[in-house]
Structures are given as C-alpha cells and as structure tokens.
Amino acid sequence: MNKASLVKLRVVSVRRLLFILVVIVISSSCAPFQHTVENPTRLQKQTIAKLNGTYHFRSQFIDSLHGEGRGWRYNQNFFNELDRKLLKDTLVLDSTGQYAFQLTMENSKRMQVNFIKDDTIFSKRSFKTKLTKDGYIKLKNKNFQVVLLPYVLGFIDVKRVRFTVDADRNLVFDVGEHRSGGAFIVMFDGRNYKYRRTYNRISDN
Questions:
Q1: pLDDT tens string for the chain (205 positions)?
Q2: CB-CB neighbours of 199 under 10 Å
Q3: How many Å apart are CA 120 and CA 98, to the nearest integer?
Q4: What's the CA gap between 28 and 16, in Å, rounded?
Q5: I want to staple 90 with a disulfide (CB 3.0 to 4.6 A). Which of 37, 71, 83, 120 is the partner?
Q6: CA-CA distance, 157 to 181, in Å (whole number)?
Q7: Where are the domains of the chain?
Q8: Phi and psi at residue 22, in whole multiples of 5°?
Q9: pLDDT at position 83, please?
Q10: How is the chain classified by DSSP, letter by letter?
Q11: Which of 158, 113, 165, 106 shows the shortest CA–CA distance to 135?
Q12: What are residue 177's DSSP bridge partners?
C-alpha cells in the first residue's frame, strides 16, 4: 500500500471515529429539559395563539429555575438565544435603542419572530415547531451544531428549546443544552445546561 493510500485510510478512520463519538454523545445526553418543572399552561392546537404577542427583548430573570445569579449566559438576549451563532455575538445592542420581539404562531408547525428596534422591524425569522404531548411548543430548527472539527479541535452543541406562557401571559422559555468537545481525540468534560427564562409581555400583537 502506497503512502497516499495510507493517508486516505487514516482520514477515513478518523472520520468514522468522530462520527461514532458524536452519535454516542448525542444518544447519551440528548440535551434534556428540567424534568421537575411544571408547565404553567398546557398548550393545544386550539390554544397555541396564546403565545402570540410582543415581548421585552431581555428576560425578567436570568434563570428562574436556579435563581438570578450571573451565569455563563448572562448577556444573552432573545435574538442570540435563537440565532445559534456559537463563536460570536450576532447582534450588538445599541444602548440607546428600545428592543422587543414579536412572536406569531402561524400554526402548530411554524413560528414567525420579528425583532424590533424603536418600533421598527430589523430582522425576521421563521422557525419549524412541534406541539409536544406535554403541552409545549418545541423549536425544531438548528438543534444540533458542529464547531470546527469535534474532538480533534472543536465541539458539538445540542440545544433544545420550548415555549409556553405563564398565568400572566408572559412567555416562558425553557432550554436544555449539551456541549462537549476535545482536542486531538482527547475528550473534555461535557456540560449540560438547563434553564428557564420569562419574557414579559408588552402587548398582544
């Protein structure tokens, strides 16, 4: 076997190993939600319009599940939570601007989100969704992302997001996220993040 064939064989072997590692991590972690939290409003197909409304851009609490301490996502706003750019901030906020977002459920399988600055829409996003058996609307877009070359020099990120509303009709935003990676096939400790945020309602439209 010549040198070129050996190199090709090694590349294929590394790719197979990485694929197996990724499958194992996803299967074992699955980025679960916090199982002990209560769903304040069990949504149904006939009631998903309860989510429709305009909300404040930043959450009322940093994490209403584990207190208000500053966590690694302290500076996250709603745009960053959904845009899923893992290596850089996708939006630099103007300190003089007034930000909000408008959420509209087109049906149980599609959500429209408009991002607003000073009463003007500056960005629009459409997301695939699913109504779960336990009464949440779950986001289906970009749940799994790869950064660089996982476990060689990079990591994978699995993020699950679901929505409902509380008794005051504020938006409840639950996250279950798993992140793990490594360098040169040496795996670092994976981390699971579970948090709930509440975005205060501004209006119904």
A1: 555 554 444 544 545 555 555 554 544 445 565 666 889 999 999 999 999 999 999 887 666 555 554 444 445 688 878 875 544 555 667 777 899 999 999 999 999 999 999 999 998 989 999 999 999 999 987 666 666 555 555 667 778 899 999 999 999 999 887 766 655 555 555 677 788 889 999 999 7
A2: 26
A3: 10
A4: 18
A5: 83
A6: 9
A7: 3-203
A8: -65, -45
A9: 72
A10: --HHHHHHHHHHHHHHHHHHHHHHHHHHH--PPPTT---SS---TTTGGGG-EEEESS-SSS-SSS-S---TTTT--HHHHHH--SSS-S-PPPTT--EEEEEEEEETTEEEEEEEETTEEEEEEEEEEEE-TTS-EEE-TT-EEEEEETTTEEEEEEEEEEEEE-TT-PEEEEEEEEEEEEETTEEPPPEEEEEEEEE-EEE--
A11: 165
A12: 159, 193
> Which pair of tokens denotes residue 134?
């336990």
Q: With the C-alpha atoms ordered 182, 32, 170, 66, is the resulting torsion angle positive or negative?
A: negative
3 token code pair: 């040198």
* CA 102/CA 116 separation, integer angstroms: 7
CA distance 74 to 76: 6
Residue 35 is predicted with a pLDDT of 64
Tokens 């005051």 map to which residue?
168
- Residues 191 and 73: their CA atoms lie apart, in Å, by 14
The residue type of 138 is K
